[in-house]
Amino acid sequence: MEQVFDQDLRERVVGGMVALLPRVLKRDVADLSEGVRLFDLGLGSASTLELLLELEEALEIQIDVEEIAEGDLESVGTLADFITKHALTDD
């Protein structure tokens, strides 16, 4: 099955991350955009996993965390790209 880049899903993923990051980090985060570097926000391995689990639940998708490379976690945008390309939806 060929993976098709789903722009709508990507927008939902970015929106989900913007909504969930303050909750996961337990603090307000100003000016969240696709270029924001996740580790500069203080996102560590445990909080990254929490964010991914929250996104799975909120967007009703499955994310294969075993496939994530360090480069995929560079920014909100790179993580959104990874999730969009690797998400398994219930469709």
Task: Quickly describe the structure.
By secondary structure, the chain is mainly alpha-helical. It is 49% helix and 4% strand. The chain has a two-stranded antiparallel sheet.
List keywords for this structure.
two-stranded antiparallel sheet, 2 strands, 91 residues, Non-ribosomal Peptide Synthetase Peptidyl Carrier Protein, Chain A, single chain, 3 helices, mainly alpha
Structural class: mainly alpha
Distance between the termini: 14 Å
CATH homologous superfamily (4th level) name: ACP-like
Quaternary status:
single chain
Count of β-strands: 2
Average of per-residue pLDDT values: 90
Shape: globular
Order of helices and strands: HHEHE
CATH topology term: Non-ribosomal Peptide Synthetase Peptidyl Carrier Protein, Chain A
Helix content: 40-55%
Strand portion: under 5%
Q: So how many helices? A: 3
What's the layout of helices and strands?
Elements: H1 7-25, H2 45-59, E1 61-62, H3 76-86, E2 88-89
Antiparallel strand pairs: 1-2
Helix pairs in contact: 1-2, 1-3
What does this structure look like?
The chain is mainly alpha-helical and 91 residues long. It has a single domain (7-89), classed as ACP-like (Non-ribosomal Peptide Synthetase Peptidyl Carrier Protein, Chain A, Orthogonal Bundle), CATH 1.10.1200. It is 49% helix and 4% strand. It has helices at residues 7-25, 45-59, 76-86; strands at residues 61-62, 88-89. The protein has a two-stranded antiparallel sheet. The chain is globular, with a radius of gyration of 12 Å.
